[in-house]
Amino acid sequence: MKLYEKLADEIGEAVRRGVFAAGERIPSVRQSSQQHGVSIKTVLHAYALLEGRGLIETRPQSGYFVREPAAAPQNERELAAPPAPASEVDVSRLVLSTLRSIRAHDAVPLGSPYPDPTLFPWRRINQYANAIARRHSSWNLIDDLPPGNPELIRQIARRYAENGVPVDPDEIIITLGATEAINLSLQAVAKPGDTVVVESPTYYAMLHAIERLGMRAIAVATHPTEGIDIEVLAQIIGEQKIAACMVMPNFQNPLGFQMPDERKKQLVDLLTGHDIPVIENDVYQELYFGEARPTTLKNFDTKGLVLHCASFSKSLTASYRIGWAMPGRYRPQVEKLKFLNTLTTPSVPQVAVADYLRQDGYDRHLRHVRKLYRQQARLMSAMVLRFFPSGTRISSPQGGYVLWVQMPERVDSMRLYQAALARGITVGPGYMFSTRNDFRYFIRLNYSYPWTAQTEAALRTLGGLVAEMA
């Protein structure tokens, strides 16, 4: 190998490892000549070779710079079809361990399931709560029995009406977050031993609810832009008894897609034809990147078979745990189960959130959050494609705050999780999103937190770890 080729290989490797970032200036010809103890002619030959390889470029009167990578072709960015199932894993134990590690290690929270709390107007909501507490003495400030605080219910119904979803306020039941709404809905439509269809991958809270109630989950492959495979679902329904279906049509966690309206209608029509209820988890409904809030399955429900669940935990305040269910024909059962399970939802948080919705700028707050998430989704997507090795694919979130990353098949997400944690970084290993080992080489990343130099360094480190494992 000639001297200039050796120098070119050395600098090229530094570029590939991220020592010199895209758009960054590399040492001048004179500097490289001095640093490497070679002639200026040798450096010029080496730089010409690197230009030919597409790694660097010359800028007149400025020097040599690392070339910005070309945009990945669409087929490189798109996620592949879900892999075949393998051995089962204990999802609940893995999720708990992951959440504990995020808290205990004070790590970069790329693996966090929660949005950045600093974006919430919690000070303003707390002011409402304190004012309510001062207005009422402790002996007459009682919790609202189900269905919940009437003013909060009215405000929720008003928001749906403003977005084109016809809602009867009498259908709404206030719950302790969307998780309770999902659990109550599942209890209302199925019993231990029943079979429930879920998406694959799916949000692990769905799997927890099924496991806790002693039911059996069947995972149906879910397209990264179209949603659950309705044709496969129809085949399963024809072969065995299905008690219910659980889906996230809008900004699904972890894929982030928005199910097209025609697919939503097809899904509801299929399930209605077989009299099968569907539990719709719509917790990210307000965090859309488009011009208007998307439709829900509830828009297409004609028989009361859609049990719609949502909350303010992802968009307004997580600490108050205010969610709700609109259970259609199952409303009496859900209301009774709410009373039997937790009796009430605390009154002060309900009234405080209702006051905020009525008097403050919720829509202004949401516009700010949506804009920020949209920008950070693009930024994280670009950084993952830049720092992770060839063969990496990513989702295209249409809302929410998580990115689903498919890595080369040799990479094990649990090994990556452990190696990253040792370096003060968390990720969401793909194992959490299935009852089986279906997503071994996938991870979920959270982009809601402020973009900092620490965040970029963490992604660069992750990319290096993935490259080593691949």
TrEMBL record:
Q: Does the keyword Amino-acid biosynthesis apply?
A: no
Q: Which UniProt keywords apply?
A: Aminotransferase, DNA-binding, Pyridoxal phosphate, Transcription, Transcription regulation, Transferase
> What family does this chain come from, according to its entry?
In the C-terminal section; belongs to the class-I pyridoxal-phosphate-dependent aminotransferase family.
InterPro entries tied to this protein: Aminotransferase_I/II_large (IPR004839), HTH_trans_reg/aminotransferase (IPR051446), PyrdxlP-dep_Trfase (IPR015424), PyrdxlP-dep_Trfase_major (IPR015421), PyrdxlP-dep_Trfase_small (IPR015422), Tscrpt_reg_HTH_GntR (IPR000524), WH-like_DNA-bd_sf (IPR036388), WH_DNA-bd_sf (IPR036390)
Q: Which domain of life is it from?
A: Bacteria
Q: Keyword Repressor on this protein?
A: no
The record's listing under Pfam families reads: Aminotran_1_2, GntR
Recorded protein name is: Transcriptional regulator, GntR family
Molecular function (GO) terms listed? DNA binding; DNA-binding transcription factor activity; pyridoxal phosphate binding; transaminase activity
All copies of the HTH gntR-type domain together span 1-69
